[in-house]
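User: I'm preparing a small set of examples for a lab meeting where we compare how different chains pack in three dimensions. I only have the primary sequence for this one, and I'd like the structure in token form so I can line it up with the others. Please keep the answer compact; I'll paste it straight into my notes.
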Amino acid sequence: MSSDCQFHRILLKLSGESLKGNSDTPYSEEAVKSIVERVKLILAEGVEVAIVVGAGNLWRGATRGSGMDRVRADYMGMLGTVMNAMNLCEHFHMAGIPSTVQSSVAINPMVHQFDREAAVRALEAGQVVIFGGGLGSPYFTTDTTAVMRALETGCDAVIKATKVDGVYSADPKLDPAAERFPELSFDEALARHLKILDSTAFTMCRDNALPIIVFNFNDTDAFRKVLRGDTEAGSIIS
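Assistant: Understood. Below is the structure token output for the 238-residue chain.
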């Protein structure tokens, strides 16, 4: 592992929208290939990478007033995350990077069911492990899935890819005066009511001293920079 990198194993949390880029379709070949290339650079530094991806490019869930059952809507979202995981996995394979998908629920023969020991072995062997299917239960977000899988597989941090270069006091696109926080403690983030992860996921990180790093995934160099502790490229909550 590069002496500059502060982490040995990380969990990268991607939004489903990151797979579509600026496309009007659910997937952009360019966007998916860009994700693979950036992860490849991290792997080259000896960092082990696990991924949880959302499904916002395919399914936004039941909205208020739609009349749709929340549980069924969440199950559909879980299936969407498996599709995104399979898409990513195939592109890693095409780039010559070994990878595997594990789903919280059995979907044979398409993907393997989640197996903690198998996941850890794959990470140790240099494979990218992509977790799909959420936690297999409704009412849990992919934020919570990311933190749970990070803890289960012994990751050193949860790295959340966003569209902004860190954590702000307000949406910087709407409020030019929003304050950026390069570093925060969990208690400071709570006191400021900052929305970093959903409340369940955030509490799990705080209770288990698992750092969260938020960075702008549209900046192609930011991923490597934040893993080296560069707080100009992202914010760290620890």
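A couple of notes for your slides: The chain is about 35% helix and 20% strand. The chain has one domain: 9-237.

User: Perfect, thanks.
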